[in-house]
Structures are given as structure tokens and as C-alpha cells.
Amino acid sequence: MGRKKFTPEETARREKIRALLQDEGISCMEDIQNLFKETIAEFMGNGLEAKLEDELGYSKYDYRNKNTDNSRNGYSSKKLRTNFGDVDVVVPRDRKGEFELQLLKKNQTSIA
Fold first, then answer.
1. pLDDT tens digits for 11-41?
2. What are phi and psi of 77, to 5 degrees?
3. Domain range list for the chain
4. Cβ-count burial of 55 within 10 angstroms (0-12 exposed, 13-18 middle, 19+ buried)?
5. Which residues contact 99 (CB under 8 A, 6 or more apart)?
6. Is there a contact between 91 and 80 (Cβ–Cβ < 8 Å)?
7. For every residue of 30-95, which 3-state class applies, written as one string?
8. Which among 51, 56, 90, 111 has most CB atoms closer than 10 A?
9. Residues 6 or more apart whose Cβ sits within 8 Å of residue 14
């Protein structure tokens, strides 16, 4: 049985993954799980930040184009259970409390 042939895109992606693992000093499964947890937290945080930006209608530092009386109001922390363990996600807030989470529901505690 021969080795699987990868597309150029798959080969490039696998090279990036190899480089990342080497740069981060990944040497065991626990290191990989921690990397996955960090990736999940970053993905969720970026998605929530983008959703709030879309809802408010202006980017984080673009005050001149602000056409709403609502604004950002810091962050709160949320702990999620995943297949890789607990992950702390930073959730942005708005001043009026109108920001409804779509990516994460209000009382959701697990994405496993």
C-alpha cells in the first residue's frame, strides 16, 4: 500500500503545521492539547470581537465613524469545556448590554 498523495495546498498546510510545532517546542500530547486550547480561545475571541464590531458599525479605534450611542464596554471572561479541557474565552461587552452572542450562547458552557 502506497503513501497518500497530497495536493499542493495540503502539502503547504502540513509544512506550516510542522514549522509551528517545531517553533513552539511541541514535544508531547499535552503540548498539542494546550496549543489546541489556545487556538480555540483565540478563534472564539476573534469571532466575538468581529461580531461586536459588525453590530456596533465601527471598528475598535475608529471613533470618527461611530454612528451609534452604544459603544464597547470592556470584556468578561467565560470558561468553556472542550474536548481538550477547559478554555478561558474573553467575551467583549457593549455599554447597553444589547450584544447577543451568536457564536457562544449566553449560558453555554461547553463546545465539546
1. 999 999 999 889 989 889 899 899 999 999 9
2. -110, 145
3. 29-112
4. middle
5. 51, 52, 55, 92, 93
6. no
7. HHHHHHHHHHHHHHHHHHHHHHHHHHHCCCCCCHHHCCCCCCEEEEEEEEEEECCEEEEEEEEEEC
8. 56
9. 6
